[in-house]
Specification:
- The protein is an alpha/beta fold.
- The chain has 2 domains: 7-230 and 417-436, Rossmann fold (3-Layer(aba) Sandwich); 249-414, Glycogen Phosphorylase B (Rossmann fold).
- The protein contains 17 helices and 13 strands.
- The strands form 2 sheets. The chain has a 7-stranded parallel sheet with strand order 3-2-1-4-5-6-7, with helices on both faces.
- Helix 6 links the parallel strand 4 (147-153) and strand 5.
- It is globular.
- The protein starts with 6 loop residues before the first strand and ends with a helix.
- 45% of the residues are buried.
- The mean pLDDT is 94.
Length: 437
């Protein structure tokens, strides 16, 4: 049972973030299930599209002071500039728990040597920044008297802050690992990720592929769980009412970053156009520098009349766009630095909306899409295979309907966020129960 007035403190790099609806959805559903939550956001984000679910969250959000960037100052100057932002919290901590504080600061220094990867100064600034942020959070935790567990999303920056804050405040912590935070070694150099798995009360990840990878890193005594994100099945419901009679719409959604593989979709569209296939293609997502690369590819292939890119929209707006599409395509890839998706939530959303889907056979995607059963999978970075899959699907309405129906079954069986979040709630309740003893 949950302790009276006990809370979970969520530590997030930024909140709310347009591309991380799954976190907002998780917090909202946990609140609806009876847990009390406080949010600590390391950054205050500007210019983000705010989804309806983020507005329905009751949790108080604490935005931390933002440390200055590393680039424009030497180490000593950077320390002086930033320590003043957090001095009150750290002086309070030192007066309350001098030995705990000193031990945690010693960890910062020793970790800076161990994980320097060629530059002690760079590692020290990174860990010191996270230590300063952790101290701010730890004081808030101690002052609240209610926060008895900390949980971070993504196992690099936010989890390092959570690990330090947990040590300073002497409450347990856990984390959810997702994508590049697992596989990019610069984000967790050496055995740092194993260290986090060892120190955490438990860790969660969102695909079996991730679970298998992390299971090889974790100590035998560490607790690791696979819990799919899932989606709001009340919001995303199948409907064909708005699909037009004109050229079929190929829809793709995701941040404009390299791992989404949008340039390969553009190349596939060039093949389709050259072969006389009638279609239009829309790509929707948060703009990054990669959006310019995608647009340049569209321009160079003379596809501007049929392939367009658009800024991110809210979930509510996206639902209406799904209803106009014929198929959904997301040609994800693994980048040279190891970055990749787990199971992109937009694939789950599209399937819940009754769309047949095409993606690639990497990472956790085959856990959602079984090739030739409820969708099509092609090799990554293969625009020819992607074009062939799109053409075969658009040319076979019976197959599209079959994939759509089987996709709906898959999503309702395995990716209902409300059901999946209950598993996480049980883990939190176990931690809160232990805090009572």
């Amino acid at each position: 049972m949950q302790l009276p007035e006990s809370e979970i403190g969520y530590i997030l790099k930024g909140f709310p973030r347009t591309s991380e609806t799954f976190i907002s959805n998780e917090i909202y559903l946990l609140e609806q299930a009876g847990l009390k939550i406080s949010i600590f956001s390391l950054k205050k984000l500007e210019g983000q599209k705010v989804h309806g679910v983020s507005r329905r969250i009751n949790a108080a959000v604490t935005y931390l002071p933002e440390p200055s960037a590393y680039q424009n100052a030497g180490l000593i100057r950077w320390i002086f500039d930033n320590i003043t932002l957090f001095s009150r919290s750290h002086l309070r901590l030192f007066s309350m728990k001098p030995w705990v504080y000193a031990g945690t600061l010693f960890s910062v220094v020793s970790m800076s040597f161990k994980y320097a990867d060629g530059s002690f100064k760079t590692a020290f600034r990174s860990f010191l920044k996270e230590f300063l942020q952790a101290g701010y959070i730890a004081v808030e935790v101690l002052n609240s008297g209610r926060i008895r567990h900390l949980h971070a999303h993504f196992c690099h920056t936010a989890t390092t802050v959570a690990m330090f804050a947990a040590k300073l405040s002497e409450v347990p912590f856990s984390f959810t690992a997702h994508a590049k935070d697992i596989y990019r070694t610069d984000m967790n150099p050496g055995d740092l990720l194993s260290r986090k798995l060892q120190r955490a009360e438990f860790a969660v990840t969102c695909t079996k592929a991730n679970y298998d990878y992390l299971d090889r890193l974790k100590p035998a005594t560490s607790r690791l769980y696979r819990i799919y994100h899932g989606i709001d099945l009340k919001l995303f419901t199948a409907s064909n009412n708005n699909r037009s009679s004109g050229p079929p719409l190929i829809l793709s959604v995701g941040r404009f970053v390299e791992k989404k593989g949008f340039t390969y979709l553009v190349e596939a569209c060039r093949f389709l156009k050259d072969e006389g296939v009638s279609f239009i293609c829309r790509m929707i997502g948060g703009f990054d520098a990669y959006a310019e690369t995608v647009q340049a590819s569209i321009d160079s292939h003379d596809l501007v009349d049929i392939v367009t890119i658009h800024h991110a929209v809210t979930q509510e707006e996206l639902k209406s766009i799904y209803q106009t599409a014929a198929i959904f395509v997301l040609p994800c890839r693994i980048t040279d630095d190891g970055d990749r998706d787990g199971i992109p939530n937009v694939l789950v959303e599209a399937m819940a909306m009754g769309l047949p889907v095409i993606s690639t056979n990497i990472s956790g995607i085959p856990e959602l899409i079984e090739d030739q059963e409820n969708g099509l999978l092609v090799p990554q970075k293969d625009p020819r295979a992607l074009a062939d899959a799109i053409q075969s699907m658009l040319g076979n309405p019976g197959l599209m309907k079959e994939f759509a129906l089987k996709g709906l079954e898959t999503v309702h069986r395995d990716f209902d966020a409300k059901s999946n979040t209950l598993a996480l709630k049980q883990l939190f309740e176990q931690c809160l129960e232990s805090a009572r003893k």
